[in-house]
């Protein structure tokens, strides 16, 4: 059925006058009358009672008017939704991140994207870097914020930010009184570190940092989540070295201290499947880029 006929019928049914309906539709009366007649013939149902003085709906016409409005309204909604989806203004985005990425620019990225695209549904997952890479390959997330890159061409990675390393100590630790620390002063301390099998690059970064300054850290406990590491430090299990962003997990019984030595950079990457071309993802990555550029310019 021609949708134009439905629009013509709705106009006549609302005006109950062919001349007024024709003017409303910006056409002449004869083709309007022909379209209504053709519609009735197609349906095999009389929709309008016509006399020289008035036009009125039949009982079937009254029902068909309501159905026609629903059809046109649904079509208009479908067109609008489709257009918004093509522009990335509605849809769904799954985002994963390592727990140490929740502060700083990550908060600004999510806030900026939510303000610009309020109708996009965000699903957030906290995952290790290894878990994110698997989820990206499996198509379970759209984008991840992680500490390592995938060597394959299937995953595209963009450097998001670089962080320094800091020490985290119990508040009552003798070294906590110093505003900064020498790394070598931690040589005899028990360490709580991120496990090697969950992220070799980050684990090895800290081990190599210590070795370059003359000692092998004594690891007494491993923990996957950074806030767990901070809590274990608070419990007196040991000390740790973490990315500077972990300082967002402030507790009154721990302190974060920067090092006197230059520390290796701890990269955080945004990563997504190379063949992923959804507009909603492109929009999100643009917000990420703008946020990074904005934050960087403030530091210059």
TrEMBL record:
SUPFAM superfamilies: Periplasmic binding protein-like II (SSF53850), Winged helix' DNA-binding domain (SSF46785). CDD domains: PBP2_LTTR_aromatics_like (cd08414). It comes from the Bacteria. Residues 1-58 form the HTH lysR-type domain. Keywords: DNA-binding, Transcription, Transcription regulation. It holds the Pfam family HTH_1. Belongs to the LysR transcriptional regulatory family. This is LysR family transcriptional regulator.
